[in-house]
Amino acid sequence: MAKPVNGNLFGKSAFEGEEKVVIRNLLEQKLGADLLAKRQGQGGSSFTYVEGWRTIELANSIFGFDGWSSSVVDITPDFIEEDKGRVRVGVTAIVKVTLK
Predict the structure, then answer these.
(1) pLDDT beneath 70: ranges in the chain
(2) What span, in angstroms and rounded, lies between the C-alpha atoms of 90 and 82?
(3) What is the pTM of this model?
């Protein structure tokens, strides 16, 4: 068995056999429109993206809740809007995903 690196075993084993085939098939599928979100951007443009909570849900369903881990590599604010005391913030995050 692999020794933990900083208390983490992720990236030290592999998916095998039928599990690997199932994961590959799931990853090759296109995301349905029901899994995508849209928002307005500057100049009337529209952005399509996958919300963070949905991404976690998808990763858990594909790899298992204990089959992956993630860490934020970089985060950049895209916009900060204030309107009538409410603040909206949009960010772009680069996230590293490590499989079991």
Answers:
(1) 1-9
(2) 12
(3) 0.70
